Amino acid sequence: MTSALTIESLRKTFGSAPDIVHVLDNADLELSRGQSLALTGESGSGKSTLLHICAGLEPFDSGKVMLAGQDIAQADDSARAALRRTSVGLIFQQFNLVPSLNVAANLAFQARLAGRHDPGFVAELARRLGIAELMARYPEQLSGGQQQRVAIGRCLAARPRLVLADEPTGNLDEATGDAVLDLMLELAAQAGAALLLATHSTRLAARCNLRVHLRAGKLQVSA
Amino acid sequence: MTRAALQALLSHWLRSPFQLAMLLAGLALATALWSGVQALNAEARAAYATAENLLGDGTSAQLESPSGRMPEGEFARLRRAGWDVSPVVEGRASLGDTRVTVLGIEPLTASSGGTSAELVTPDLTGFLAGVGFAHPRTLNEIGTSQPDLRPSQAIPIGTVLMDIAQAQTLLDMRGHITRLTLAPVQRDGLTPLNTLAPDLRLVAPGDGTDLAGLTDSFHLNLTAFGLLAFTVGLFIVHSAVGLAFEQRRTMFRTLRALGVPLRHLALLLAAELALFAILAGMAGLALGYLMAATLLPDVAATLRGLYGAPVPGTLRFDPVWALAGMGMTLAGTALAGGQALWRLWRLPVLAPAQPRAWAHAGARSLRLQGGVAVALAIIALILAQINGGLITGFALLAAALLAAALIMPLVLAGGLALGQRLARGPVAQWFWADSRQNLPRLSLALMALLLALATNIGVGTMVSSFRTTFIAWLDQRLVAEVTVTPRTPSEARALQNFLQTHADATLPMQRIDARLAAQPGQVYAMKDHATFRDNWPLLDAVPHVWDRLAAGEGVLVNEQLARRAGLRPGTATLEMPDIGVLPVLGVYSDYGNPLAQATLGLDRFTGAWPDTPVRQFALRSENPQALITALQDEFGLPGNQITDQAQAKALSLAVFERTFLITGALNVLTLSIAAIALFAALVTLSGMRLVQLAPLWALGLTTRRLAALELGRALVLAGMTLVLALPVGLVLAQILLAVINVQAFGWRLPLQFFPADWARLAFWAGLAVLAAALLPAWRLWRHGPHQLLKVFAHEK
C-alpha cells in the first residue's frame, strides 16, 4: 500500500533546561492510504502536538516526517501550506468552520483551495452526512453535531491523502459521536485516505485498524 | 469583593497595554483639540474685553460725528449744559518703527469705570506731563525712541494711551476730538441731546462695532471645528471601549457567575472609565494648551488682519478653561462608553459570544442606524430650506455629516456583499464575506475616517474655491499701481496738489463710519473713473450703474450688507445718514470685510460730509516706481505709507493664507486622529481575529498571504470610505460656501472642483491607512504560526 505518512525518530521538546519536557522522544510511525490509526494518550501527552507536526503546523527538533512523499522538514512555509491544501485534511475538536461562510461555502472551501472541487461529490457528501438541508445556514446556526459533520464534509470533499482528526467527537454525546465516527471511517475508506485519529476514548480507538498509545514521548503499539 | 473584581477588570488592560494606550490617546487628543480651540477663543475674547474695558466703552454711551471728528468746542458746550461727557481722540499714527492706534483721554473727566482710569489715577501729574502707556509688545515694536511710554498688560496690543493734548498733536487734530463718552449716570432735567447737538449721533452701549460681535462668526467656526475633532476623537473612545467590552465578555460572565451583582459590575466599569477620562483629560489639557500656544500667533494675526482685533500672541493659563475641558472629557467619555455599559446591563449572563451572533446583532443595529441616518438626512433637507442663521447652518452641517457617517456602514455592507457575489475563487469569496462580518467592529473607526476625509475635502474645497475667487477679486479691486497713506490731513492736502501733476489719476479714499440698515458699517466715496468702471467687482447692478452713481442718484452696497438687509439693485433703497433714502444701484463683492459698506459718488459724499479727511490715495501711473521715488523724495514718506500693487496683493494673500492656516492645522490633526482610530481598531481586532484566521492557515493559506489579505482588507475598506467621503465632502463644501459663509461673513462663493487636491488627500489617507494596518499585518506574518497554533492549543 502507498504510504500516506511516515514518521522516523521524531523528537519534540518544550521549554528549556532544566525544565525540558520531552513530548515526543524517538517516535516512529507508518500509515498507509486506506488505513485508520487511533492515537490515544492522557491529556497533555502530546497527541495534538504530533497531529500539528504531521500537518506541518508546528516545527520539531529532529527526526523525519514524510507526508505524501515529501519531507516536511525540508519544505518552506509555502510548500507546507501547499501540502496542507492538497494532501491533508484537518478535523478539529472545535470544528473551526469559517464563520463568515455558510454551510455550502464551508463544505466546498478546502476542495476549491485544493483545486479539486466536485459539486456532485460535495452534494453526495452533504446527503450522506445529513446536512443537505442546512446548506444556506451559517455555522453558529448549527448544533455541535451538525457543525462537526460539516467539518468532516469540508475535509473529505478535498479528497486528502491523510485525514488528521483531533478529538473530533470530544464535544458530542456518545451516540452522536459514534455515528459521526462511523461516517468518517466509512467515507475516508471510500476515498482511500489514511486516518489518524487522536482520542482519549479506548472505545472509539477500538474501531480503527491500528492503535498506538503515546506515553512519556514514546509511541507504543496497542493490542 | 470590589477590590477583587476591579483587579480582574483592570488585568485586561495590563495584558493589553497598547489598547489602553490607544484609548487614552483618543481621549487625550479629543480633549486637546477641543480645549485647545476653547483656549484660543477664550484668549481672543479676553483681549476684546481688555480693549472694551480700557475706556469702559462697554457700559458707556457715546456721541459721534458721522465725519469721524468734531470740534473740541462741542465738549465744552455739552459740559456747560450739564452733561457729564469726556472727550476722546483716536487715530492711527506712526510711532517709532511702527504704526499704532493712538488713544487720547482727558483724565479729569474720563469715566472712573475703565482700565484707563486705574492706570492714570496713581500718577496723574506724570500722565498730564506726557507719560503714556502701551502693551510691552507694542513698546518693543515702537523701539526706544519713545522714553515716556510705560508698559501695561491692560492696554490692547497696538494701542498707545496718552493725554488728549499729546494725542491731538500726534494725530494733527488740534482743536478736534473723535468722540465724546457719556457717563452712565447723568443729572435729571438736562436739555435733550438731540436738541443740544442734533448733528451728533448717540451710540448706545454695545451698539457700536464691538469686536466680540464682529468676531463671533470666526469663533463659532473655530468652535465647530473643535467640536468635530472632539467627535472624531470620541469615535476612537467608543470603538476602543466597545471592543474592550466585547473582549471581556467572558470575564463579565465569570464575575457575575461568581456573585458580583450586575449593578456593582456596571459601577466598577463606570469608575474605570472615569479614571481613564481624568488621566487622559489631564494629558489632553496639557496638549491642548501647547496646541493653542502654537496656533495663537496665527489666530491673532488672522484676527488683526480681518477685524483689527488686538489679540496678543501669547497664551495665559485659565483654571476655568481647564475645569471646563475636564468636564467635557468626562461628559464625552460617558457618552462614548454609555452604549457599552447599556449593552452590559442588557446582556444575559450566559450570552453566546459567537462572531456571527455579533454580526447579526450588528445587522439589527445597522438597520436602526440606517433609520436614524434617513431621519437626519430629512432634517438636513428641511434645515437647508430654512434661512435661519448661523446656528441653523451648523445644525444643517452636523445633521448632514452624522447622516452620512451613520449610513456609511450600510453602504459598505452593500458594497462588500456585491464583492462577495462577484468573487470567483474561495479565498476571494472568504475575503469579502469575512470583511462583511468584521465590519461592525471596524465601522466606528471607518466612520471617524469618513468624517475626517469629508471634512478635509469639504473644507479644502471651500478654502480653494475661496482662494481662486479671492485672487480674481484682488485683481479687480487692486487695480491702482500705487497707494499712499497720508499721515495727517495737511499732508493729504499737500499730496493731492503734488499728485495732480505726477500721477495719471488720483483716486482719493474717504470714508465715514455709519450705521447702515441697523448694522455697524462704513460709507465710502468713489470718484468717477475708468479704473472703477472697468474693474469694480459688481455682482449685480441696474443699467447705467456708473453714470447714475456719478450723478449721485443712488448707492452701491457690499454683498454682506445686501444679503443681511435683503437689498436687490433696482428695487431696494437704503437709508443713508444725513442724506436720506437712496436707491440701491448695485452690489459688489467685498471679501474679508466684516462690516456693512455703502459707496457713494464722490460729489454726493463730499456734499454730505465736506470735512472728511482723505485716508488714502489710489494712484494710477505708467511708471509706478518713479512715482514712489518722487513721493519719498518730496514728502519723506516711510515705506509703510506707500504700497505698490504687488505688495498690496502679497499682503492680502498673506492675510488670506494665515486666516486658513489654523483650518489646515485642524484638518491635519483630525485626519491624524482618524488614522489613530483605525490603527487602534485594527490592532485590537488583530488579536481577536486569530480565531477566525487559524482555520484558514490550517487549511493551507500561508501567514504571508493572510497578512497581505488583512492589509488589502484595510485598504479596500479605506478606499470605499474615501469614495463615499468625496460626495459627502462636496456636500459639506456646498453647505460651507452657500450657507455657513453667507451667514457668518455675508458672502457667497461659487463651488469649484479641485481633483488634484483629492488625489493628494487620497494618497495621504492611503498612506495613513497603510501605516495603521501595517503593524497588525506584520505581526501576523512574522509571529503568525506561533500565535495561530495557540488557537488550536487553547481548544483543550
Q: Helix and strand succession of chain A?
A: EEEHEEHEHHHEHEHEE
Find the structural class of chain B using helix and strand composition.
alpha+beta
Count of domain modules of chain A: 1
Largest sheet of chain B: 8 strands, mixed
Number of helices of chain B: 25
Rough outline of chain B: elongated
Which whole number gives the mean pLDDT of chain B?
Answer: 82
Query: What is the gyration radius of chain A calculated from CA atoms?
Result: 17 Å
Q: Which two chains have the most extensive interface, and how many residues on each?
A: A-B, 36 and 35 residues
According to DSSP, the number of beta strands of chain B is 21
Name of the CATH superfamily of chain A: P-loop containing nucleotide triphosphate hydrolases
Task: Tell me what you see in this structure.
The complex is a heterodimer of chains A (223) and B (796). Chain A is α/β, with parallel strands linked by helices. Chain A has one domain (3-221): P-loop containing nucleotide triphosphate hydrolases (Rossmann fold, 3-Layer(aba) Sandwich), CATH 3.40.50. Helix content of chain A is 35%, strand content 28%. Chain B has 796 residues and is α+β, with helices and mostly antiparallel strands. Chain B has 25 helices and 21 strands. In chain B, helix 2 runs antiparallel to helix 23 (661-698), helix 13 runs parallel beside helix 15 (426-477) and helix 23 (661-698) packs parallel to helix 25 (755-793). The two termini of chain B are 30 Å apart. The A-B interface holds A 43, 48, 52, 55, 57-58, 77-78, 81-86, 90, 92-94, 96-101, 105, 108-110, 112-114, 138-141, 166 and B 352, 354-357, 359, 425-427, 429-430, 433-434, 436-437, 692, 694-705, 785, 788-789, 792-793, 795-796. Chain A: InterPro entries: AAA+_ATPase, ABC_transporter-like_ATP-bd, ABC_transporter-like_CS, ABC_transpr_LolD-like, MacB-like_ATP-bd, P-loop_NTPase.
